[in-house]
Specification:
Layout: H1 4-17, H2 26-32, H3 37-53, H4 59-64, H5 96-111, H6 114-117, H7 122-138
Helix pairs in contact: 3-5, 3-7
Length: 140
Amino acid sequence: MCHPTSLIQNAVARLVCNLPECSHTTPLLRSLHWLPVTARIHFKTLVLAYHAANGSGPSYIQDMVKPYTPARALRSASAKQLAAPSLRGGPKFPSAETRRFAILAPKWWNELPIDIRTAESLHTFRRRLKTHLFRLHFER
């Protein structure tokens, strides 16, 4: 199913490239170097997770995602992973959006290659992340 915002993005891509309504948009998005809407959602979520993982995000975001600390010394301790949230405990009735972010952000974060998770700056993280998401979507 197509994300509603994708319809707008596809129409804008056709407009920018001056192509008819029936034109396929995947090559257009690739040539414009635009991430599809679903990839943009991943991108924005992971940028928030980066801020939280590095202690620079808003406190309410940092409260939702916590660094993974293994019970004993493991090599994965330096992988800069996030802990999956406990489905028990926490606020009594968190909003669906809060639950969704708290669950998806660590999941998507931990699936990233380690060189992206351990980027030394936000600029480097964003650049590597966009390249990674672009490749995932367009180079299948």
